[in-house]
Specification:
With about 525 residues, this protein is α+β, with helices and mostly antiparallel strands.
Length: about 525
């Protein structure tokens, strides 16, 4: 029974239509879940037929054809400032706009002819309140045909790690899927117009008139990046340590560095009973768990508004009584150590779901920890990492945060958030380890290396932001909005990524060369010396 001769639903990672090729998913539960009967739609059939009979199919056809024809025609006419075509629409008889149905599949191009990834389109559409579908739409044959993907291309994509539902929307310069919009009887002309305005605003590069000349939107987007002026008062303003992945951290005036970054930073994580790793994206309540480390007492203290007792955890790993095991996370293999039932029950109460606390203890093993970083998941392949997503450090500039708040305030004055609504974000919304002050806004983008006090760091580039920064934790409640990501997307988008802050790697070998084996500490107030060469 386990050796199925067919596949359906989400049980495969990849399939190719013109050859006998299918790559099944690895997890046994994923392999056997062929989808669920659409019982909600079944129960709605009677009501759906009533609507169709009331409106009549001919009226629905006229209505949806008109909307789709308007959108399709407008998309085909869009041009960048250099005359390059913006939109490629897929399907047969595209020239006969009025004979086509209410579904439009397409991809978008930049002025230089490169493609916008469909994930980027989906991400920005979500911020604009627009729902659309992306990918191959469970139709691998049509996907390969219209995207011009040969069998060799598809096999190459699979070898590169491409699977259904992942974020690899562009591989080897070609799109791996498309964007699809659909219209129904409930769609309005305002919906269609809003979608066109979204495409024009987010993806079409047009000239802006400034004085007697003009400057393209592309140049405006990069304004403020890479300035050469360095303020003399550039210094470290704040240090924050996050002992438990996705939980709240604590600020310090002085903290030690080691070869994984800040000492004890993201050295613990919380895992569910099914093996899934808890993050704020899955469990927003993790933000309400507060942590602090007392180095003198050698303890990690953890508090939660849901727990009456403050939890105490010894920093000495030898005092932990849990078993050791291996853990796969973000393409890396870790050795971890668990805790007793008392600790795990505390976190289960704090998060209202069964879970367990694990601590990274790979340094105690003689075998090296392997690092197999997946594309767009882990850019730091040269350093030892605790349970971080991309790099040892995230650095944010106070001036960049101020510039962002100025833009948010400007949007509020224009009435974009409703009467009397104003949005202000704190630097801690971005969960930085280091906050600097005294620089020009976004000056950090151009830094290649920097020193803080006596510590040397290498910049790994900008940090790609997601909708997590739109979560606001005021008064113990989780509130979600479109900001500040929507505003950042309007001027901080670079090839599908919305960048804010920079990722750093601590060059411990350089510090050992300069100062021997003495422990290196970061202190608030230390001078920051960037190197852009």
């Amino acid at each position: 029974m386990l050796k199925k001769t067919y596949f359906s639903g989400g049980t495969v990672s990849a399939s190719i239509a013109n050859i006998d090729f299918v790559k099944r998913r690895e997890g046994i539960e994923e392999l056997l879940e062929d989808g669920t009967q659409s019982f909600l739609n079944i129960s709605s059939i009677r009501h759906g037929f009533n609507i169709i009979n009331t409106l009549t199919t001919s009226a629905i056809v006229r209505h949806t054809t008109m909307l789709a024809s308007y959108v399709r025609k407008t998309l085909m006419e869009l041009r960048h400032e250099n005359g390059a075509v913006v939109c490629t629409i897929y399907g047969s008889n595209i020239g006969k706009v009025l004979n086509l149905g209410p579904t439009i599949a397409f991809n978008l191009k930049r002025p230089d002819g490169s493609w916008f990834g469909y994930r980027e389109v989906e991400k920005l559409a979500s911020l604009s309140g627009i729902q659309l579908r992306t990918g191959c739409f469970c139709n691998p044959g049509a996907c390969a045909k219209y995207l011009g993907l040969s069998t060799a291309d598809l096999l190459s994509n699979v070898e590169a790690g491409r699977v259904c539902w992942d974020d690899n929307d562009i591989l080897h310069g070609k799109p791996t899927g498309a964007v699809r919009v659909s219209f129904g009887y409930m769609s309005t002309f305002e919906d269609a117009k809003k979608f066109i305005m979204f495409i024009r605003h987010s993806f079409v590069v047009v000239p802006y008139i400034i004085g007697s000349g003009h400057i393209s939107r592309k140049k405006i987007f990069s304004a403020g990046i890479g300035r050469r002026h360095l303020a003399r008062s550039l210094h470290l303003e704040s240090i924050t340590v996050y002992p438990i992945k996705s939980c709240s951290g604590f600020s310090v005036d002085r903290w030690a560095l080691n070869n994984t970054g800040l000492q004890y930073d993201r050295e613990w994580l919380i895992r569910g009973i099914n093996g899934d790793i808890f993050t704020q994206k899955k469990v927003p309540e993790m933000r309400l768990i507060n942590t602090i480390i007392d180095l003198n007492l050698g303890k990690l203290f953890v508090e939660s508004p849901r727990c009456k007792v403050k939890l105490e955890i010894n920093l000495d790993q030898n005092l932990s009584c849990g078993e050791k095991e291996e853990l796969e996370l973000l393409g890396q293999r870790y050795q971890v150590q668990g805790y007793d039932d008392e600790v795990n029950m505390w976190f289960a109460e704090a998060l209202a779901r069964p879970c367990m606390l694990l601590r990274y203890c790979g340094s105690e093993y003689l075998n090296p920890v392997t690092k197999k970083c997946r594309p767009q998941t882990c850019r730091d392949e040269q350093s030892r990492l605790n349970f971080v997503n991309e790099a040892q450090f995230l650095l944010i500039s106070e001036e960049s945060v101020c510039d962002l708040n100025d833009r948010l305030s400007s949007n509020a004055r224009k009435g974009k958030y409703g009467p009397g609504q104003n949005i202000h974000v704190d630097a801690m919304r971005f969960r930085p380890n280091l906050i600097i002050s005294g620089a020009e806004p976004y000056e950090e983008d151009s830094w290649r290396r920097l020193t803080i006090g006596g510590a040397y760091f290498t910049s790994l580039g900008g940090c790609n932001r997601c909708e997590m920064i739109n979560l606001d934790f005021q008064s113990g409640e989780v509130r979600k909005s479109k900001e500040p990501l929507a505003t950042l997307a309007s001027f901080r988008r670079v090839k599908g990524k919305i960048l804010f802050g920079i990722l750093l790697r601590y060059d411990s070998s350089s510090n050992e060369y300069e100062g021997g084996n003495e422990e290196t500490w970061l202190e608030v107030g230390q001078k920051v010396h960037p190197d852009m060469s």
